[in-house]
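Note to self: keep these together.
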Amino acid sequence: MHTSNGEIGLPPSWLDTLMHRMGMRIISQSPELTVIEMPISGNTQPQGLLHGGASAALAETAASHSAILHAQRLFGENAVAVGVELNISHLKAERGSLIRATAEAVHLGRSSTVHTVRITDEDHQLIAIARVSNRILNK
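Structure:
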C-alpha cells in the first residue's frame, strides 16, 4: 500500500486538525516510508525562524501516519496508532519556505512501531532528526 504521486495532499480526516492548520500535505505514504511537506510561513517563532514545536509536530505526524497505515494493514480500517514517545534534535535554523519530513520505519510490530524521521529543507539539507514510537490500538 505505497502511494507516491505528489497529489495526495490533505486527507479528509485531516480537515480542521493541527495538520490542516499548519499546512501539512502528504507527498507519499506507506507503513515503511511516508513523506509530508509543510510551509515554514505561519509556523515560525517571532524572529521568523521555523518553530521547533512545528518541526516536532511534523515529525510526529509523518511517523504516526505511517504507523496508522501499518495498524490498518494488520487489523483493518478501525485500527489506530497513537504517539507514545518523541525525541527530536534540531540541527539547523531555517527561514526558507518549505520543509519535508521523511519517516522511515525501524520497527513495525503488532503492538508498536518506531520510525526515524529526517526533516530537510528545500536544498535537502538536514535541519532536524527525530525518533517516534507509536502504540497500535485495535478498536
